[in-house]
Amino acid sequence: MKYLILSFSLFYIILGCNDAPSSASNDSSQSRPEYALAVHGGAGTIVRERMTGGLEEAYRKAINEALTIGEEILKNGGSAMDAVEQTLIFMEDSPLFNSGKGAVLTYEGIAELDASFMEGASQNAGAVGGMRTIRNPIRAARAVMEQSPHVFLTGKGAEQFAIEQGLDTVPNSYFITERRLEAWKQKHLEGAPAKSGILETAPAADYYGTVGCVALDKEGNLAAGTSTGGMSDKRYNRIGDSPIIGAGTYANNSTCAVSCTGHGEFFIRYAVAYDMSARMAYLKEDVGTAADYIIQEYLVEKGGGGGLIALDRKGEIALPFNTPGMSRGYVRPGERYVALYKDE
Q1: Please, what CATH class does the domain formed by 32-341 belong to?
Q2: Which of the residues 210, 228, 249, 261 is marked catalytic?
Q3: CB–CB of 35/215 below 8 Å?
Q4: Is the pTM of this model over 0.85?
């Protein structure tokens, strides 16, 4: 099947402003870029008045560092899969995000982690859920994809598999930061004082800090990954959209690579990540049009909050969200964009 190669101009999402790009496209005179990579650090109540005490600078620095890690791999000929994995390892290790170290806590006061990984050439995929001791869940998700006959492993079995693959383990306390613990105490222990200071003013329950990455390498291959601590105060081993292929993550070289963030139950019900690919394949929509419709119209109509990052095989990028903000960024040769708020 032959695909018509189109180039789309920059368009804007309308969320009370006219200067917040939901997609980025190449000039019509240019061919596919050598590489492209986009990341998100979660969508939610990200507004300037709450990003105080050095928090805004910390998030911008972290997004920039994540982009640099992925770009170095891609511009040196590395694979989209390696770029996604290494970028997300960095974000999992940062206490800023709801993923790995810094994950939100469950009702019982522990961290339970989920992640998924998918490559676009063959649509092979791997995912893990409910992990408590594997330092980098995104590594476990890729290992499931490459080293097992399965797609989705959870709980003790997922941890046993990861350990058999030689992945690093840590005590659950490693993931628990003072900020997350204080937020948990405020909900569960009466009279527990809130700490103040740098990084302590970040929203807790209303900030979705899931991390995600999508990449296009020099060979034209796409890959996507998503990692999260899930919903704050979750119970009964709840698992959201992030580790579910087709809901929180999807990749297909013929269409796009996608990573989602937001209220996971809605992304699961409406198969948001796969819907991106399906609209491009069946309706012949470009990546920006498909992403904008799903997030700004369909998901809003259903009552869901969140956003996504998507990257197509031509290097065009979409970054729509319907919440007050989403930490996000992308990089292509000679081009870099980092933003937190909806008016950027």
Answers
A1: alpha beta
A2: 210
A3: yes
A4: yes
